[in-house]
Amino acid sequence: MSELIAKLKSEIKRLFDEDVVDVVIAFKKADSPLRPQPAFYRKGDSLEDLEYNSLCQNNLANYLTRYPHETRIGIVVRGCESRSVNALVVEKQHPRENLFKIGIPCQGIVDLRKIVKQTGEDVSGYKEDQEKISVVFKNKEYQFDRKDVLHDSCLRCVHPNPVNPDVLLGDPLPEGDPGVLRQAVESFEALTKQERYTWFQQEAERCIRCYACREACPMCYCTECFVDHNPPRWTESTISPAGTQAWHIIRAFHQTGRCTSCGACERACPMDIKMTYLTDKLNEDMLNQYDFAPGMDDTTQPPFASFNLDDKNRFVA
Amino acid sequence: METKPKIALFQCQWCLYSEPDQYWVDHNLPPSIRLMKVSCTGRINTLHILNAIQGGADGVMISGCRPEKCHFKEGNLSALRQHEEFLNLLDYIGYERDRVRFVWLDLQDRGRIQQELADFENKLQELSTANTLATRINAPEGEVHV
User: Fold this and answer.
1) In a domain? residue B95
2) Do A193 and B50 make contact, defined as CB atoms within 8 angstroms?
3) Which of A38, A88, A118, B86 is the most exposed place for a label (fewest CB within 10 A)?
4) What CATH number does the domain containing B42 carry?
């Protein structure tokens, strides 16, 4: 991993030296070794605290929309992030020519909760290699298999390699199995209607309406979200059952054909609410009906934006 | 006494070609049916549908124009893509999909809207009321709900 960080540093240094970018979005070390933070480097900044490992939870594409279009951004992208960037480029949130994607094939993001559940909160050291993750807690070392502690959405990842990066650091990984993508949806669909509703109700109504999922999501870039809009109010913005259900339904629905299944929403959720089973279903429908997968290139419009008269046979009744 | 199911009818203002039909919808709707007249089905947001459901409607009916007949050229195409998928999502989380119905009307469909509404009412009476989404808390009497 230190080899990769060294490569990353020299690449970022080159970008600044050759004046390719104004700012580079990457990760840096934070107080806790378990929580690397997003960092924004400009020319002349020290790259000493630059960090990259499997604990980098955020989807960096989230920060793309916070810069003016003229800013030339270098961004460290893994598979899902590169697709998010593509989807944002399609939606004209940043011009492609002002972007420089530094691609890293991703082995999956480690779920903090799975580690902390077995050790404890105050982890003081972290190491990883291809297969093993080891953390130090109270002077005791814990070893985990990488597969056991990966985040759920990363276990279902199909495209670990960045899509059309400007430079690729590290060797490409084998593509995932599309069948695995269906797992969450399949196990949910196997339930009866009543069970599905009960499950949804239990998940949705635990919500405390902190909107961390929205803030973590690169595709949720609206300046005014429908839940904040008033008057008239679209939905109840309290934690009433109707309000939380409406939030979960519409938040997922607004991601139709746009969500890249990075799982940043679930990782950000303080209540550990499952959300990707909704967006995965919508994405699957988009793939089946319109043969569209979000973020696989930076020109194809998502289905809801590209309707045409070919649909006319679908008007039944 | 059996109460009639409450229906929210979203009607595109251009879709009823015959004047008596439009008059009937505007003036003689039964009290169990609420009319929301919209400028085009493309104007309907999925949140409108969700709000109707959460506001206590037993069923939602959307009437619009056939493809190529849309007053705004392609509002109905956009509406179909979105609302169909929205229904898939509602169905997926366990809501009765049949509680939302589309009616796409053409030039020759005179008197059809009454028939469709009656059919829909019958259908809704058959459905169980188990899996309905949580309803909103209504504003206190006399206050304006914003």
Assistant:
1) yes
2) no
3) A118
4) 3.40.50
Tokens of A8: 């990353």
Q: How far is B23 from chain A (nearest CA, A)?
A: 23
Distances (CA, A) of B92 to A257, A271, B24: 17, 23, 36
Q: What is the mean pLDDT of chain A?
A: 90
Which of A53, A287, A75, A92 lies closest to A164, judged by CA?
A75
State the Cα–Cα distance between residues A132 and A147, nearest whole angstrom.
9
Answer whether residue B32 is part of any domain: yes
Neighbours of A134 (CB within 10 A): 13
B51 touching A (Cβ < 8 Å): yes
Residue range A67-88: average pLDDT?
A: 93
In chain A, domain spans? 2-111+150-304, 112-149
This model of the complex carries an ipTM of 0.89
Q: Which one-letter amino acid corresponds to residue A315?
A: F
Q: Which domain holds residue B44?
A: 7-126
User: Do the domain assignments include residue B120?
Assistant: yes
Cβ A200–B94 below 8 Å, yes or no?
yes
What's the number of domains chain B is made of? 1
Sign of torsion over alpha carbons A227, B42, A296, A19: negative
What is the tens place of the pLDDT at every residue in A224-245?
Answer: 999 988 877 888 888 889 999 9
Arithmetic mean of pLDDT, A215-222: 93
Q: Which residues share a beta bridge with A110?
A: A150
Pairing outcome for strands A73-77 and A23-28 = parallel
Tell me, what's the pLDDT at B139? 62
In a domain, B51, yes or no: yes
* Contact residues on chain B for A245, CB-CB shorter than 8 A: 54, 133-134
Measuring CA to CA, which residue among A185, A189, A172, A257 is closest to residue A219? A257
Q: B11 - beta bridge partners? A: B37, B63
Q: Report the residue of chain B nearest A311, measured CA to CA.
A: B77
| Coil vs helix vs strand at A110 | strand
Chain B residues whose CB is inside 8 A of the A196 CB are 92-94
